[in-house]
């Protein structure tokens, strides 16, 4: 492994022709980069590449995104309006839905979705569709980098054959292919530019070219030996999170039964300066990564006859959490002489995590459906999600309600699923009849709430 201190183009400089041209273009900032997929991952990358001085073409099949970018309209709230204004005003950025506009690019980075199919199998259709599109514009000297999360071997064995099919171009000689995972975690301070970037090529020159490009745009680049190492590292990171979240969720069930506050236990354990890293319980897993990516590894492991018991167990524990939370809520209502059927619950937070508007795989949808199955009437409040979008498995048909003391007091219970920072917790504490809190959001009001607070 080499760090960002490595001479950037050491490997590439030894190769003449198109590679030298690529290296020169990085250094003179005349490099033209195409980014395919202008979503959560692609758009911040566009911002970083444009800010580095490169010319950037953003390509997306979604024409509404292209039109929004042209008008400088924000469609990903957490990125802030400034990025959209900057890109709309920049003469080094253009958004397009015409794949032909990618032809002049020296490098093309792929940031398209990698979801799961109906049977939890990897769905590479977006990646392979993009490979077919790029096949039509590929030319000697071009670099293609895959950023979408996927199982080891995808870049070499799935993407590249489609990319070069029928072109006569030889990977590692005429065109260059690498993998570089995105590690962004929307809502955190760290972003595309500050999080160290792993880069692994199909061959050393491909890796070096990709590393050189990223070094111009992000603070720290870590070159690894191969695309497979970079692919597997990304999955290890996300499996690590899924497993540790499951562990603390299981701890919550045990500690709840023992009458011990799991949040205080995690806080106490986290004072150990080594060998422990705090993870926090919640109502279930959400987002486009942690509930999905581990199953890419499970699928690949099956191919080589290896079990992935940790991943499967973590999946079982985490997917059981919404049901636990709903049972806890119904028990709390029952303790107060209220039957579930006919009672009214206000859910706080439809997005899967605090401070963002992303509702993909959010357990809040599952909570709403489970409560409705039990005859509970549910509304929600989320300052980031004014209208509940239709998501993969749910269409709840709700809009966010405004928080007022009278409204809050009219519900039998408030269920906190996501602890957005911009929710009026003071108001909830004073007006709620009962709060079921899955995020420890009411810790500061615990004394005032007394019996009206249930942690779940
Ligand atoms: N969201 C995150 O925080 C995050 C973090 C790390 C990695 N990832 C990974 O990055 C990849 C992209 O995720 P995302 O969250 O940015 O998804 P996204 O849905 O926000 O964006 C993907 C974009 O690709 C576009 N697209 C789909 N097919 C296309 C095609 N054939 N050609 C051009 N554009 C196409 C879509 O219209 C969309 O705008 C996934 O593999 C994901 O697992 C996501």
Write the layout of secondary structure elements.
Layout: H1 10-13, H2 18-28, E1 32-36, H3 42-51, E2 55-59, H4 63-71, H5 81-89, E3 93-96, E4 107-110, H6 125-135, E5 143-146, H7 154-164, E6 176-179, E7 197-201, H8 204-215, E8 221-224, H9 227-258, H10 262-269, H11 293-303, H12 309-319, H13 321-335, E9 344-348, H14 363-373, E10 377-381, H15 405-409, E11 413-416, H16 425-431, E12 435-437, H17 446-449, E13 453-455
Parallel strand pairs: 1-2, 1-4, 2-3, 4-5, 5-6, 7-8, 9-10, 9-11, 11-12, 12-13
Antiparallel strand pairs: 6-7
Helix pairs in contact: 2-8, 6-7, 9-11, 9-12, 13-14
The chain binds nicotinamide-adenine-dinucleotide.
Fold and architecture overview:
- With 456 residues, the protein is an alpha/beta fold.
- The protein folds into 2 domains: 10-225, NAD(P)-binding Rossmann-like Domain (Rossmann fold, 3-Layer(aba) Sandwich); 320-455, Rossmann fold.
- Helices cover 40% and strands 12% of the residues.
- The protein is built from 17 helices and 13 strands.
- The strands form 2 sheets. An 8-stranded mixed sheet has the order 3-2-1-4-5-6-7-8, with helices on both faces.
- Helix 6 runs parallel beside helix 7 (154-164) and helix 13 packs across helix 14 (363-373).
- The longest helix has 32 residues, at 227-258.
- The radius of gyration is 24 Å and the shape is elongated.
- The relative contact order is 0.09.
């Amino acid at each position: 492994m080499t760090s960002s201190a490595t001479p950037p183009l050491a490997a590439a400089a030894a190769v003449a022709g198109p590679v030298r041209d690529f290296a020169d273009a990085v250094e003179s900032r005349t490099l033209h980069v195409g980014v395919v997929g202008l979503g959560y991952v692609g758009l911040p990358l566009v911002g970083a590449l444009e800010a580095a001085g490169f010319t950037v073409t953003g390509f997306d099949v979604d024409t509404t995104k292209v039109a929004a970018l042209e008008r400088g309209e924000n469609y990903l709230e957490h990125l802030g309006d400034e990025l959209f204004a900057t890109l709309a005003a920049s003469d080094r950025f253009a958004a397009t839905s015409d794949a032909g506009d990618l032809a002049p690019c020296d490098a093309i980075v792929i940031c398209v979705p990698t979801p799961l199919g109906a049977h939890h199998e990897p769905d590479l259709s977006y990646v392979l569709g993009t490979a077919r599109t790029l096949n039509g514009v590929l030319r000697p000297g071009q670099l293609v980098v895959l950023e979408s999360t996927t199982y080891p071997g995808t870049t070499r064995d799935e993407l590249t054959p489609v990319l070069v099919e029928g072109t006569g171009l030889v990977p590692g000689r005429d065109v260059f292919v690498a993998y570089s995972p995105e590690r962004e975690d929307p809502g955190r301070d760290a972003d595309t530019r500050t999080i160290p970037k792993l880069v692994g090529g199909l061959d050393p020159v491909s890796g070096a070219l990709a590393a050189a490009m990223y070094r111009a745009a992000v603070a720290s680049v870590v070159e690894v030996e191969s695309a497979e190492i970079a692919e597997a590292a990304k999955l290890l990171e996300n499996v690590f999170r899924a497993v540790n979240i499951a562990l603390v969720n299981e701890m919550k069930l045990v500690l709840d039964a023992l009458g011990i506050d799991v949040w205080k236990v995690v806080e106490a354990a986290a004072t150990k300066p080594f060998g422990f890293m705090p993870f926090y319980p919640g109502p279930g897993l959400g987002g486009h990564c942690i509930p999905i990516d581990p199953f890419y590894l499970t699928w690949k492991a099956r191919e080589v006859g290896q079990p992935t018991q940790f991943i499967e167990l973590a999946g079982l524990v985490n997917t059981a959490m919404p049901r636990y939370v709903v049972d806890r809520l119904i028990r709390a209502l029952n303790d107060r002489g209220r039957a579930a059927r006919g009672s009214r619950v206000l859910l706080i937070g439809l997005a899967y995590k605090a401070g963002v508007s992303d509702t993909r795989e959010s357990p809040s949808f599952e909570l709403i459906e489970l409560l409705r199955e039990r005859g509970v009437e549910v509304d929600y409040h989320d300052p980031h999600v004014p209208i509940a979008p239709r998501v993969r498995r749910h269409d709840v048909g709700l809009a966010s309600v405004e928080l007022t003391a009278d409204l809050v007091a009219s519900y039998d219970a408030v269920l906190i699923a996501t602890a957005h920072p911009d929710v009026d917790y003071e108001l909830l504490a004073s007006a709620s009849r009962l709060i079921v809190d899955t995020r420890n959001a009411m810790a500061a009001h615990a004394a005032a709430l007394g019996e009206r607070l249930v942690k779940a």
